[in-house]
Specification:
Blueprint: H1 11-23, H2 30-43, E1 47-51, H3 54-64, E2 72-76, H4 82-89, E3 93-97, H5 107-113, E4 118-121, H6 133-141, H7 143-148, H8 154-159, E5 163-167, E6 175-176, E7 179-180, E8 187-191, E9 204-208, H9 216-226, H10 235-238, H11 259-270, H12 272-291, E10 297-298, E11 307-308, E12 314-318, H13 323-335, H14 351-355, H15 364-371, E13 373-376, H16 384-402
Parallel strand pairs: 2-3, 2-4, 4-5, 5-8
Antiparallel strand pairs: 1-9, 6-7, 6-11, 8-9, 10-12, 12-13
Helix pairs in contact: 1-11, 2-11, 3-4, 11-12, 12-16, 13-16
The protein binds pyridoxal-5'-phosphate.
Length: 407
């Protein structure tokens, strides 16, 4: 069976993890700090905090901004549940909006959804393709939109407008107008979950890029405390001889990254531009070449004049099919020993959200894109032979279910 996205665990990773284990310092320490600095340099943002997941990063940023009951947070209907779940955790209301034909949140739909209760917009760079951040950043700065904003906390007063909190779980290494993801908006949160492009097994990072008058280093320090019990000294600082006393300044969370995780991340980041991204890009262009001749398939957009994907997912679509036909095609692909996936089942279709009253019929493009979508395997060790096998399985599955791949 060709897997969907196994991690690349080679001797280099094993050696770096072993080095951490032997060092005697396995929790948050020097390697996590090094990884944070390397990420800041790579993404071009102002300060970076590594955590145990992207979900934790998104939630702590909502809490840092003071999002609470009565507030609204705009999220795309087409995303992984984590984007919306964290809004629920804060007691606020996720306001879903529809997507465009690139799978990303529609800026005109965002504009329609803004109310005086809107505190945050969370765009998601689906499949690794950055959202139209210039338009979103311009939107939150429009005089009419700013006038509507009702700040309730000191941080909100300082911001003076809606916060743009980018869910960049897919898009580390992606670019928009030649700027890298992480530096495109106020805050971006990366994921290093096992299936993501750059992994630390589990893990995530908050890329801070807050405008004046915010001091990003100060915010970083505050977040370090918030994500470690509200403790004013971390374990490494407490290790200094005699430096044992500490205080708890708030009821903080426990979200820190360990040096074991960071050691995987350091190796992954070091070879990300030279090995990971070129390999993924090659896989994408081979899929394009092999599938383009069949006019039932719609190739995904992952590169244009102004933006470039991180090549995280290859979301193929099949023209004119319904959800049942898509599911039948997937079943046929699996029969040929190839793993594929669907990214994503829209959040308003999930039981929990349905029971809250959300209805997928309000997001017609989200449903249309979902119903015809199949994500193909992309991983470092997927060689040309296997790529051909995947493409062959897809074409024969389409022919089997629809009679032909060409009409
Ligand atoms: C994976 C993913 C997340 C969650 O990342 P974790 O690091 O597992 O918390 C959030 N949003 C999207 C769109 C994702 O795909």
């Amino acid at each position: 069976m060709i897997p969907f996205s196994p991690p690349r665990i080679d001797q280099k990773i094993i050696d770096e993890v072993t080095d951490t284990l032997k060092s005697g310092w396995i929790t948050t320490g020097p390697k996590t700090k090094r990884f944070e600095k390397a990420l800041t340099a790579y993404c071009g943002n102002k300060a970076t905090l590594c955590l145990n997941s992207a979900t934790a990063g998104l939630e702590i940023m909502l809490r840092w901004f003071g999002v609470k009951e009565g507030d609204e947070v705009i999220v795309p209907a087409y995303t992984y549940c984590a984007t919306a779940n964290v809004v629920i955790h804060c007691g606020a209301k996720p306001v879903f909006v529809d997507i465009g034909d690139d799978f990303n949140i529609s800026v005109s739909e965002i504009k329609k959804a803004i109310t005086p209760n809107t505190k945050v917009i969370m765009p998601v760079d689906i499949a690794g393709l950055p959202c139209d951040m210039d338009s979103i950043n311009a939107l939150v700065n429009e005089p009419e939109i700013k006038k509507m904003f009702q700040p309730q906390t000191e941080v909100q007063k300082l911001m003076g407008r809606i916060l743009v909190l980018s869910d960049a779980a897919h898009s580390v290494g992606g670019a928009y107008h030649h700027k890298k993801v992480g530096s495109l908006t106020d805050v971006s949160v990366l994921s290093f979950h096992a299936v993501k492009n750059l992994t630390t097994a589990e893990g995530g990072a908050i890329c801070l890029n807050l405008p004046e008058p915010f001091d990003n280093d100060r915010v970083y320090q505050d977040l370090c405390i918030k994500t470690l019990h509200g403790q004013n000294k971390d374990a490494l600082a407490k290790l200094q001889p005699g430096n044992w006393r500490y205080d708890i300044v708030e009821a903080g969370y426990k979200m820190n990254m360990t040096d074991i995780m960071a050691s995987i991340g350091l190796v992954e980041l070091e070879r990300y531009e030279t090995e990971t991204l070129p390999r993924r890009k090659h896989i994408f262009s081979m899929y394009d070449q092999l599938l383009a001749p069949f006019n039932r398939v719609i190739l995904p957009l992952y590169q244009s004049d102004d933006r470039c994907s991180s090549f995280h997912l290859y979301p193929l679509r099949i023209k004119g099919i319904n959800e049942q036909q898509r599911d039948a095609i997937i079943a046929e692909i699996f029969k040929q020993q190839v793993s594929v996936n669907v990214h994503f089942i829209p959040v308003p279709m999930m039981s929990f959200y349905k029971q809250l009253g959300y209805n997928i019929n309000n997001y017609p493009n989200t449903y249309r894109m979902y119903a015809s979508e199949i994500s193909l395997p992309v991983f470092y060790d997927l060689n040309d032979e296997l790529i051909k096998q995947v493409a062959g399985a897809v074409v024969s599955a389409i022919s089997k279910v629809l009679g032909t791949a060409n009409e």
